[in-house]
Amino acid sequence: MHLNTLKPAEGSKKKTKRVARGIGSGFGKTAGRGHKGQKSRSGGFHKLGFEGGQMPLQRRLPKVGFASRKKGDTAELHLYQLAGRKEKVYDVEKLKALGLVAKSAKSVKLIKSGEIKRAIKLSGIRITAGARVAVEKAGGSVAE
After folding, report:
1. Which CATH number goes with the domain that contains 134?
2. In this structure, what DSSP letter does residue 115 have?
3. What does the alpha-carbon distance between residue 121 and residue 134 come to, in Å, rounded to a whole number?
């Protein structure tokens, strides 16, 4: 093997397309740009998203995201938050008065996070299955 016999692999080198080099090249005269129009001219480009003067899609659509109007309606309450309290009966209004949930909350859901060892009575409060088992195991009751 000699340096003067080295060649690139077959198909790895591709000839560049030489435009505007006469009829025989296949890209003579208009150089593959067609006839007339903005794209045939030098410097004839438009910016991304340009729709020919029509109001572009990114400007037709509103600039607002999505914010649920129900977001603050349901408050979450954890079992450990009730474990250290002395009260035995809880409802939504009592939880608001104690400052455990926001005053703007329309409903409350009790979640099993922590444990409770004393009997409590819940009314008008939604509750997860695990939390229900924990409350009833401690001798409490749930009325919805």
Report:
1. 3.100.10.10
2. -
3. 12
Average pLDDT rounded to a whole number, residues 27-51: 90
pLDDT digits (tens, 9 = 90+) for 12-35: 999 999 999 999 999 999 999 999
Q: Which residues contact 54 (CB under 8 A, 6 or more apart)?
A: none
C-beta separation of 96 from 105 below 8 A: yes
CB 67 within 8 A of CB 99: no
Residues 127 and 80 in one domain: yes
